[in-house]
Amino acid sequence: MSKPSSKPLTENEKIRYHRQMIFPGWGEKTQEKLKKSRVFVAGAGGLGSPVSLYLAVAGTGVIRICDFGEPELSNLNRQILHDDSRIGKNKALSAKETIERINPDVKVEPLKDKITRESVSFLVGEVDLIIDCLDNFDTRHILNRYAVQNSIPMIHAGVYGMQGQLTFIKTPETPCLWCINAGSPPPVVFPIVGATAGVMGCVQALEAIKYLSGIGSNLLGTLLIWDGTSMEFNHLPQKKTPDCPVCGDAL
């Protein structure tokens, strides 16, 4: 696993990140915190694309991107890390190529393996934050259990059509993903408008940047619901399930 740089900002970095560094309370110290951060992004698809891109242009030090799939033509309405020339290439490798072209100062670690109970520890490694950009709940629950057991914060988001949901999971302060969405629905091919993944991926990226920088507050114990057809955001309070098999009080 790559280690984030502990060196001060270079002159190029000061110029690149100037517009965010002049945000009140940001400055060089906050930018250096981002430079020293390590993030695990699970999935390089519709959500993982904007998440990875905006983490990279914000100056996140190390981005570990995990995806065992390959881009297909039907992915390209939303998976903006990839293009027609990448069809048939591993998504994590394609993501690395795109991100390093946009910001060569960040380190991208592509991981081509599938997340399983056996592989999750090796794949996630020592990171500051996990970002769930997956499209199936079986794998999400594996990631959720690992995050809870290792006290690593996780940002979850999901999309469907023109709707999305998002929450920030931080054990033991908040409910875990199983508390919010127990079990796994059957796998189906669902509708998705590309901009929907863009909206929710950008919100995930902003939640991550706020947490890593220490600026602002996160959606703890709250499920954000976005309806793109009416452009409405709603906040639904969430409570821990006492007998949750992942984070319950009896464990």
Give a short overview:
With 251 residues, this protein is α/β, with parallel strands linked by helices. The protein has helices spanning 11-16, 18-21, 27-35, 48-58, 91-102, 120-124, 137-149, 177-180, 194-213, and strands spanning 38-42, 62-66, 107-111, 129-132, 154-160, 163-169, 222-227, 232-237.
* Adjacency order of strands in the biggest sheet: 3-2-1-4-5-6-7-8
Morphology call: globular
User: Uncertain spans, ≥5 residues at pLDDT below 50?
Assistant: none
Question: SSE order in H/E notation?
Answer: HHHEHEHEHEHEEHHEE
CATH C-level label? Alpha Beta
| Radius of gyration using CA atoms only | 17 Å
**CATH architectural group:** 3-Layer(aba) Sandwich
Beta-strand share of residues:
15-25%
- CATH topology: the name is Rossmann fold
What are the salient characteristics of this protein?
251 residues; 33% helix; alpha/beta; 8 strands; 9 helices; 8-stranded mixed β-sheet; single chain; Rossmann fold
Description:
- This protein is of the alpha/beta class and 251 residues long.
- It has a single domain, classed as 3-Layer(aba) Sandwich (Rossmann fold), CATH 3.40.50.
- 33% of the residues lie in helices and 18% in strands.
- The chain contains 9 helices and 8 strands.
- Strand 5 (154-160) and strand 6 (163-169) form a beta hairpin.
- It is globular.
